[in-house]
Design brief:
This protein has 220 residues and is of the alpha/beta class. Helices cover 50% and strands 17% of the residues. It has nine helices and eight strands. The longest helix is centred in the middle third of the chain and has 17 residues. It is globular and about 45 Å long.
Length: 220
């Protein structure tokens, strides 16, 4: 089985690129971040602080996650409910970062993620895929961009959705998320020693896609 691991900070375009690459290459796309977001959403809905480790751990036995491919895109189901749209809220993203620092949550999801890679050619993105989840991945990529470039892209994305974001707030959220993800004790965000660094600060989406595709195909 071929496995491709794409790691990187929030807003680097991992999910967007990974979805398109998986479709192009015929791999199963696994958005591990969506799994953490689903758990973060569940914690928020139950009034539990995502950083409250015992509180979140107590919720895990109640959670059943299912990943399905529907009409070419991945959908995440939380206890039978399709939460693919709900988990994209900004507050859920922060909650995901909080629960992801919990070793019990990571252990809860690790077996599921690895089993997918054992049974199919997969393209998986997240923050610790190449370092923890799939340390023997066929190809490892660390996708990044400057905080300013990522904030600008996120700002435009929110505008296109009809929202009225403040750029400085978006930038501050990204910087805070980077710090939280990089400094957590469990599986922090970092580039695997054998990962290929790709910085998209100064190239557009199409150029980024072609560069990623070429990098993967040259190594499988």
């Amino acid at each position: 089985m071929i496995s491709v691991a794409i790691d990187g900070p929030s807003g680097a375009g991992k999910s967007t690129m990974a979805k398109r690459l998986a479709a192009e290459l015929g791999y199963l796309y696994v958005d591990t971040g969506a799994m953490y977001r689903a758990i973060g959403l569940y914690a928020l809905r139950h009034g539990v602080d995502p950083k409250d480790r015992p509180g979140v751990e107590a919720l895990l036995p109640e959670i059943q996650l299912d990943v399905r491919l529907e009409e070419g895109s991945q959908h995440i189901y939380l206890n039978g409910e399709d939460v693919s749209a709900a988990i994209r809220a900004e507050e859920v993203g922060m909650a995901a970062s909080g629960v992801a620092a919990n070793p019990a949550v990571r252990a809860f999801l690790l077996d599921t993620q690895r089993e997918l890679a054992r049974s199919r050619d997969v393209l998986m993105d997240g923050r610790d895929i190449g370092t923890v989840v799939l340390p023997d991945a066929t190809v490892k990529i660390f996708l990044t961009a400057s905080a300013e470039a990522r904030a600008e892209r996120r700002y435009k994305e929110l505008l296109e959705k009809g929202e009225k974001p403040d750029y400085n707030t978006v930038l501050a959220d990204i910087v805070r998320r980077d710090e939280q993800d990089s400094n957590r004790a469990t599986a922090p965000l970092r580039q695997a020693p054998d990962a290929i660094l790709i910085d998209t600060s100064n190239i557009d989406a199409e150029q980024s896609f072609l560069l990623l595709k070429q990098t993967i195909l040259s190594r499988v």
